[in-house]
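Researcher: Here's my situation. A collaborator sent me these components and asked whether they could plausibly form a single complex. I don't have experimental data yet, so a predicted model of the whole assembly would be a useful starting point for our discussion.
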Amino acid sequence: MTALTGTWGLVRLILRRDRVLAPLWVLPLGLVPISYVASIDGLFPSAAGRQGYADLSAHNAGFVALYGRLQGSSLGELVAWRGGFIPVVAGLFCILTIIRHTRAEEDSGRRELLGSAVVGRHAPLAAALASVFAAGLVLCTVLALGMIGQGLPAAGSWAFGAELAVTGWVFAAVAAVAAQLTAGAGGARGIAIGVLAVAYVLRIVGDVGALDDGTPSWAGRLSPLEWVTWIRPYGADAWWPVALTAGVAVALALAAAALSARRDLGAGLLPPRLGPPAAGPALRSPLALAWRLHRGLLAGWAAGFAVLGVVLGYLAASVADLVPDAPQMAEVFARLGGAAGLVDDYLAATVNLFGLIASAYAVQATLKARAEETGGRAEAVLGTAVGRLRWLGGHLAFSLLGPAAILAAAGLAMGLAHGLNTGEAARQTSRLLAAAMVQLPAVWVLAGVTVALYGLLPRLTALGWGAPVFCLLIGMVGAAIGLDQWLLDVSPFTHVPRLPADRFGVVPLAALSAVAAALTAAGLAAFRRRDLPIP
Amino acid sequence: MTDAISVAGLVKTFGPTKALDGLDLVVRTGEVHGFLGPNGAGKSTTIRILLGMMRADAGVARLLGGDPWADATALHRRLAYVPGDVVLWPGLTGGEVIDLLGRMRGGLNERRRTDLLERFDLDPRKKGRAYSKGNRQKVALVAALASDVELLLLDEPTSGLDPLMEEAFREAVREEQRRGDRTVLLSSHILSEVEALCDRVTITRDGRTVETGTLAELRHLTRTTIEAELAGPADGLAALPGVHDLLVQDGRVRFDIDAAALDPALRHLTAAGLRSLVSRPPTLEELFLRHYSSRPAPHDSSTPAPHDSSTPAPHDSSTPAPHDSSTPAPHVSSTPAAQDPSRPAAQDAPEATR
């Protein structure tokens, strides 16, 4: 097939370009469920305890909304159910990777360069899909081997891995279709992530509907995220939903190929729109420009955090319900200060997780400055009367204050959802807003790492992603696999006061802020002195 | 009045590669200065040093009387820059980019903006991602030309423009030139453009300045082609200093002659009995090819130029010479040597005597 000539070479190009980035999402997604095994096994060592936990969870709308329906009580089933959000994250990463290697390549003009070489018409799309499909298989293998290593049944472990892999594939194929529709990576990314969000909502509607009469509503059946729950790892270990989802993925991939043959390179199937012929009066500074470049990303993150905040906040009250039926936890329960203490502990852990995820946004926003530099757009601005620090300041406003905005969205949403649930909206909202805000100094440390890299070692700025991934691994797996305290202490999130469970402490926050300021200042000082642009 | 740009002995290395190796460049206030060199000659690096984006490892650079690194922001208010590879923000329209860059530079002449948009036939409502390379170039050009600044730094500004738009660009630069207070540094590959627009040129190669001066001065540095029909034999011509590539055939001679050796050679020809004589000054192409080719230059460029200030510049900028190389040059078409296909057609109005 001449249309696929050169695919293998392009696959190698993608692997070469993503040799750092791809492991950064594949490995954590595959390894995080290991921590669930240890924690669930620790909390409910006996079958009776797990049964009690499962009975409660299976009928709790909040848990069902977040993770899906629970239909068994074995350790494996509880772990797979608890990992119910991981397929969504896998889908998200697959979407981002596909767009990065298809539509973003066309935008940059590199696709055209390749297209003129001995490369078949469909080769770039096929190479991107093949690479992401392969990443799915690696993810499946990492997860399955990790689960088997924890002593879970092999058949269920492979089924669990396959669940993640095929979810990734189907959304990779959705992204491949979206990449044919719009003339621009941003629009394509928006469409594909929108499809993912709709699939998630449909899954929630379907599963929560099933709580009443036991039969899932029709809405869920439209969602690939629902299909993969039919696999039921460690329970049914059904492979037909794997085949179904993989088949849909292949069909979508073929559709994307057909669509790409019907359009011109660089163009989309949806017509481009014209914009204003002159700039509005506000568009006159590097900060205003940064706002234009960052606002879409910031709005997306804020919306995502708000939705997740509502779901996780709504769940908070039900955490206390679990306790009376789990006598094994009585001692822990007492130590935590009763039901209220347990709920606050859950809230603190959740807000800490939001802080970790917000640092990914901080890194992403900082990397925009680097993209502006390598893309040649920084030069145009720096050739005007805009100084270097003013230019970089526009972007750093988003890496430092953007996390404040999205954490506020998460804190407010959690507080409102939990507060309305418990009838103390004002109190919970202010408590959780404060809890979210104390994460900021830790987020700033990770942003500062990226700023320092950007100033001192600009070619390695993308390694800034390593910091949140490292902290996420430390935070989620570290305690479960018994890491040394000094290693846990490396993560700034270890030092954040665990509000609202613990008391507020100003010392760690001041220390973290000082570290963040020092890192940022080092990056800015180096940036002032270095050559621009460094490719 | 001080020079708008003065650069001496600039050195810049990137790892193992030496981008600039003692480059000199002087641009006088009010002139349009051509900055020529093959790819990788260091033109863009020089401009980035002048913009304070990069710091030179050695050498002196002065821009509008200031230090390009230390006074970057203040100096940038007085200049406009068009990068060689214009990249726009995919989500901003061309009009938004023009206004944004103009405002960040300190102001835009609205009337000129409207006028330039029309002349460059540019739709300012399109998003950055929808523009072709040429149209992106136009966005940057309009943003630069519509600013009231003293200095324009243009890095290969016409790459990607079609011939019609190139003419619009030339016209716009000529307007700047007529105002007299604007200085333009124009890095370019397009020789006809440089010939048509530039008062003086600097040619660089491998990060060094190899020639600088007016076009007339540069012509003196290189050889003139002489074709003559003689009454008698031209013995001894080959032995004259400065004569190259001599060809004798049926009483006709053809040779290249160094500018400094022109007078004795012509005396020799007159002594032999001249029947007809065609002298052709070097075209810019020949000039550049000689410097661009990697072979060591046959002519020692370190010899001081026999500067003749009375020689008129080949072009008066108000009456541009025709650049259409398809127009036959009548005075050479009759001589057999003119049919030599290896010679590029003369782009200048040659000085011819018969």
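Model: Some features of this prediction you could bring to your collaborator: Chain B touches chain A at residues 48, 51, 53-55, 72-74, 76-77, 80-81, 83, 85-93, 95-101, 103-106, 123-127, 129-130, 140, 153 (CB under 8 Å). The radius of gyration of chain B is 23 Å.
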